[in-house]
Amino acid sequence: MAFDNLNSLETLSLQNNKLMHIPEEIMEPVVDTLKVIDIMDNPLVCDCDLQWYGNWINSLKDDDIMHKKRTVCMMSHEHREYNLQNLPLEKMNCVIKVYGNSMTSDAGLPTLSTLKVCAFWTLTTLICTV
Fold first, then answer.
1. Which domain holds residue 50?
2. Cα–Cα dist 42/18, whole Å
3. Which residues pair with 125 in a beta bridge?
4. CATH number, domain containing residue 102
5. Based on the structure, what is the number of domains in the chain?
6. The whole model's pTM is what?
C-alpha cells in the first residue's frame, strides 16, 4: 500500500490533489501515528470509506487546529456538501465503525485494530461487533 512502513509519520498533506476517494485501507498503516492530516481542497465524494476521517479527528486530544479547517465532501445526488466530521452515515447506508475505548496506541490514540464494526439493524438499533 501507499503508506506502508511509515510508522512514525505525524503529518500528511494531501491538500489540493484532486482526490475523490481516500479509503481506510490506504490510511490504515499511518492513521495511528498521524497528528495532522490535511485533505482540504479535494473534490471528495461522500462515501462510507471516508468515515475513518471523522473517527480519527474525534479521537484527537488537541484538535482545535483541525476543527477550524472545513474539510468537506460532496453528496452528488443531494447536491450538498457535508463536513467529514459529520457524515450522514445512516443516510448513506454505511456499516458504522466506532473506536473501542479500551486499547490505544503509544500516542494515546485509538488504533484501527480496536475498531468496533456496527450496522444499523433498524433506524433505532445499532449493532456492534469487535
1. 11-129
2. 5
3. 122
4. 3.80.10
5. 1
6. 0.69
